[in-house]
Design a protein that fits this description.
The complex is a heterodimer of chains A (about 525) and B (about 170).
Chain A: H1 3-6, E1 18-23, E2 26-31, E3 36-39, H2 41-49, H3 57-64, H4 74-84, E4 94-98, E5 105-107, H5 126-136, E6 143-149, H6 157-174, E7 177-183, H7 191-199, E8 202-207, H8 212-218, E9 219-224, E10 230-233, H9 235-252, E11 263-268, H10 276-285, E12 290-295, H11 301-304, H12 306-309, H13 313-332, E13 338-339, H14 340-349, E14 370-373, E15 378-380, H15 383-390, E16 397-400, H16 411-421, H17 424-432, H18 454-461, H19 472-490, H20 492-502
Parallel strand pairs in A: 4-6, 4-14, 6-7, 7-8, 8-11, 11-12, 12-13
Antiparallel strand pairs in A: 1-2, 2-3, 5-9, 9-10, 14-15, 15-16
Chain B: E1 13-16, E2 20-26, H1 32-40, E3 46-54, E4 57-64, H2 72-96, H3 98-110, H4 120-124, H5 143-151
Antiparallel strand pairs in B: 1-2, 2-4, 3-4
Chain lengths: ~525, ~170
């Protein structure tokens, strides 16, 4: 590009504000409202000089995307900004409930700092469960998703049932778009529990670390024999068995299998890096339609086991590129499998909308998009904040679920909601994750599509504001977007067609509780 | 000490040492935010010091955290100069278009919920003369319209008679 050489000819009045970056031999330019163009270096030089003839194809491309000041279309910008920031009009919709910290599996990277099966003091009491539901229903968001987490939620299945019943009852008056999700390792599933979950429309999500040998190496499952003795079992076999069984149950109900199936998540460890093909094949073999190639986070046990599970992020990006290249090939052969990170970014890049993935948005979803409720009633800005609490850091603790008080009714819960949403920590996180005001992010070409995690910054760099050049999260987000734009710029219509399909979001209306009432 | 001749003198005056490089930037030619932005990109590789050797200049010193690779110091000067020009240029564009951007974004955020209803611009071209929505209890009708129905047509000089909607009203 060599702007230094062009410096005396740069036009101060031709362009609207933009950011640029060299990607795959071209120059990517993005606008404030998130439009983009990939220009040749000569085209970019002409754009920089303001030397683009009106009526030329380049002028048309630039004007169409609102890059030319003389052609500025305010209506277009308003619509684009509104579509991207629509989530600001609501309150938290994702409510994570840790119904117990107990878990029957031991994972090498456990971010949640699970407790032993004997630690019944980490079970959520019925009173706290009821009050948590009442607290959740004070949200100003018309949609509520209650996500059961742990530990292993199937260990506290009675609490799950109690929460579902109370939430459905509360929703008769509230009339929200209510959904339930459970994140489970599935090893404690049985036909009775499954029948209840399916009947009550609770979505089920699990973890799959890849092929069996890798999964079982990282996730230790011990079961009790009939004589009470402890025996090692295959966590992968249990997960695979129940994924198939649950998907079959959905099929028997007449639900579209391309839309209704168990979602699974990968946590990428060092051992996973060379196994990108096996991992993708495992997911396809299990009937999964999506694979989320999440890097390991520095929370929970992963902080202590980092020497064993961590890796430089450039190695992760090699893994990511190989895996997604392969997934694109599979899609071109008719296999439907998408990568979740790519889908999130592509929805913003190609779709012009924000899918409201709370970890990759600006400002981030801490408290204003999600809230985490611990088994003891403590409330955190987000799941990551709750994970740090289990490591002895209460920075992101913002309160406790209210008690109805002498006057009864919901007043105490509404007051607590206002206290939570205006908490100084919540305000600080909104400021720290607003990319319009972050050093480096404000100059970054990917600013319209990206997001930062102040909790990650706090944990890894000692400041919620962070230094993005040294952030492993920034390296991943930037690396993935580099890859996506390279493929957009050079992949041709076949790749673009696959990417467009990955941005298509279909509502899973069956799981809406309002349909049942 | 040596200079980096590939970077024009009107951008930077450069002193390259063994493990560090110091660059003097004309503070009148380049806004301080642009200097901050250009210096920031080295945080992962260098210790970065900004100071003012005199009133008219900002000095940016980059000291390598480890051993610099061959050519890294001169490469850093090129990279800094490129980023400095880029930041300064875009800062100028942003300053000149601030009113446009702020106007558009404030309208986007004040428009309420996405898809909640038509904007004022939409209403400006809305045809109010078309068929009314189904309203069997006449809840949406004005008192005057209801009275007209019950008492028959009002006299033509009745001041309460609604006027015909004007096109584009």
């Amino acid at each position: 590009m060599q702007l230094v050489q062009l410096r005396k000819h740069l036009s101060p009045s031709f362009a609207m504000p933009f950011r640029h970056r060299e990607v795959g031999g071209k120059v990517l330019v993005t606008s404030t409202e998130g439009d983009f163009l990939m220009l040749s270096k000569d085209e970019f030089a002409a754009f920089a000089r303001g030397d683009v003839e009106k009526g030329s194809p380049l002028y048309g491309r630039l004007a169409e995307r609102n890059f030319i000041r003389a052609e500025f279309d305010e209506r277009r910008m308003i619509d684009r900004v509104r579509a991207r920031k629509g989530f600001l009009s609501f309150g938290p919709n994702l409510h994570i409930m840790v119904v117990t910290l107990r878990c029957n599996e031991t994972c090498v990277y456990c971010h949640a700092s699970r407790a032993d099966m004997t630690a019944t003091q980490t079970d959520m009491s019925p009173d706290v469960a009821d009050r948590t539901v009442d607290q959740i229903f004070t949200t100003t968001n018309p949609s509520i998703t209650i996500e059961f987490q742990g530990g292993e939620p199937l260990v506290a299945f009675d609490t799950v049932k109690r929460v579902v019943a109370r939430a459905r009852e509360r929703n008769k008056d509230a009339g929200k778009r209510l959904e339930f999700t459970m994140v489970s390792n599935l090893s404690l599933m049985d036909e009775e529990k499954l029948a209840w979950l399916v009947e009550n429309k609770v979505q089920i999500c699990t973890s799959v670390d890849g092929p069996q040998h890798l999964h079982d190496k990282q996730r230790k499952l011990v079961i009790r024999g009939e004589d009470g003795s402890a025996q090692a079992a295959s966590a992968h076999a249990q997960a695979a068995k129940w994924i198939g069984r649950i998907n079959k149950a959905y099929g028997e109900m007449g639900l579209d299998p391309t839309l209704y199936h168990v979602e699974a998540l990968l946590t990428t460890t060092r051992d996973a890096l060379p196994k990108w093909k096996e991992i993708v094949d495992t997911y396809v073999g299990l009937g999964c339609r999506a694979l989320f190639l999440r890097p390991v986070d520095p929370f929970g046990f992963a902080d202590k086991t980092a020497p064993r599970v961590e890796y430089p992020r450039r190695e992760y990006m090699e893994f990511y590129r190989s895996a997604v290249d392969y997934m694109i090939q599979l899609n071109q052969q008719g296999v439907e499998i998408l990568e979740r990170f790519a889908a999130i970014f592509l929805t913003k890049i190609l779709g012009g909308e924000d899918p409201n993935f709370l970890d990759v948005r600006s400002p981030c979803g801490a408290a204003i998009g999600q809230v985490a409720y611990n088994y003891d009633g403590k409330i955190f800005t987000c799941d990551e904040g709750r994970m740090l609490h289990e490591m002895g850091d209460d920075t992101f603790l913002i309160g406790e679920v209210a008690k109805a008080g002498d006057e009864g009714g919901d007043a105490a819960f509404r007051t607590r909601y206002r206290e939570l949403m205006s908490h100084e920590t919540v305000r600080a996180l909104a400021i720290a994750s607003n990319l319009d005001a972050q050093p480096d992010c404000v100059n970054c070409t990917y600013q319209p599509y990206c997001g930062v995690c102040p909790v990650h910054n706090h944990k890894t760099q000692g400041s919620i504001f962070g230094r993005m050049r040294e952030s492993s999260l920034c390296a991943v987000h930037k690396g993935i977007q580099d890859y996506l734009f390279e493929r957009i710029g050079t992949g041709g219509p076949d790749v673009l067609q696959v990417f467009q399909r990955w941005t298509t979001v279909r509502d899973r209306t069956h799981f809406l509780q309002t349909c049942a009432t | 000490m040596s200079e980096a001749p590939e970077v024009p003198a009107d951008v930077l005056a450069v002193d390259v040492a063994e493990r560090s490089v110091a660059m003097r930037v004309d503070a009148k030619a380049y806004p301080v935010d642009a200097i901050y932005g250009a210096a920031y990109i080295f945080l992962d590789r260098c210790w970065v010091l900004l100071d003012r050797p005199d009133g008219g200049h900002v000095r940016v010193t980059l000291a390598w955290k480890g051993d610099p690779a061959e050519g890294a110091l001169h490469g850093a000067v090129d990279e800094f100069a490129e980023e400095l020009v880029s930041c300064a240029w875009r800062a100028g564009l942003a300053k000149d278009t601030r009113a446009l951007i702020e106007g558009a974004t404030s309208k986007a955020h004040s428009g309420g919920e996405v898809g909640a209803g038509p904007s004022l611009d939409d209403l400006a071209s809305y045809d109010f003369g078309g068929k009314a929505l189904e309203d069997p209890l006449a809840l949406a009708q004005s008192w005057e319209d209801k009275q007209k129905k019950e008492t028959g047509p009002a006299p033509s000089n009745d001041k309460t008679e609604p006027s015909e909607p004007k096109e584009g009203a």
